[in-house]
Amino acid sequence: MSCEDVREFLDAYIDRELDVVSTLQFERHLVECASCRSISERYHELHDAVKVKIPHFEVPGELEKKIRAQLGRRDRTVGREWFPRWRGWAIAAGLATLLIFSVVGNVARRPSASQVLADQVVASHIRSLMANHLADVISSDQHTVKPWFSGKLDFAPAVKDLSSEGFPLAGRRLDYIDNRPVAALVYKHRQHTINLFLWPSPDSDSGPRTTTIKGYNVLHGTRSHMAYWAVSDLNAAELSEFVRDLAK
Q: What angle do CA 152, 201, 229 make, to 5 degrees?
């Protein structure tokens, strides 16, 4: 299944209208294609938000009986008397439709929580480069870096030295993301800088998801109830290799 096919049948997939074979092909493509996976996640968020935001209207129980009774009458006078009521219902239905489209439009324009968080992470990465404040303590010794966080954070981040894999640890600092203090570990790969942000998460383990913001590649996921976000101008393949090395 191609990217074009996925985007054509995305609505049908979310509404569970695809057959079993097509669904399996669709989900296999999402696993392999980060771009389509990101679009699918946003559609799911929009779908869920619409369920919550759009008001539900209960049809009066006696409405069907009244309509059938009126259809059974041939008295045009009675029909004319009911016409204003039908016109009122039509106007109400039109206003309800406008309201629904307004809500859907606002939800569609509103960035998802994941997108807002990704923007914060990239902004922190850029600030660290512009302000020349990559690290509060510059050190490649993981036994020096990890104890430094003690007393500064309410969790103990795992610190790994990946020098043998080509990603030496360069230092660490405190940062502030998603309304809380987080650990920021700085790694290097040739002339490239990688910021790795860590903080606790109640979510279960999830594989890394990839996105690109302002020219920076971003990989994020959850492992052992710890959210991680890796940001760099490295190409996506090398940044993925870095994240895989972290998991070893």
A: 80
Residue 131: φ, ψ to 5°: -85, 0
Three-class DSSP category at 178: coil
Residue range 105-141, pLDDT digits in tens: 554 555 577 788 889 999 989 888 876 666 655 555 5
Parent domain of 16: 3-53
Domain CATH number, residue 193: 3.30.200.100
Three-state DSSP at 41 gives helix
CA atoms within 13 A on the CB side of 3: 8
Number of domains in the chain: 3
3-state secondary structure of 9: coil
144 assigned to some structural domain: yes
- C-alpha 219/C-alpha 207 separation (Å) is 9
By DSSP bridging, strand 169-177 and strand 137-138 are antiparallel
194-219: pLDDT as tens digits: 999 999 998 888 878 999 998 999 99
**DSSP states of 99-156 as a string?**
HHHHHHHHHHHSPPHHHHHHHHHHHHHHHHHHTT-S-SEE-S-HHHHHHHTBTTBSS-
Dist CA 103 CA 53 (whole Å): 7
Same domain for 131 and 219: yes
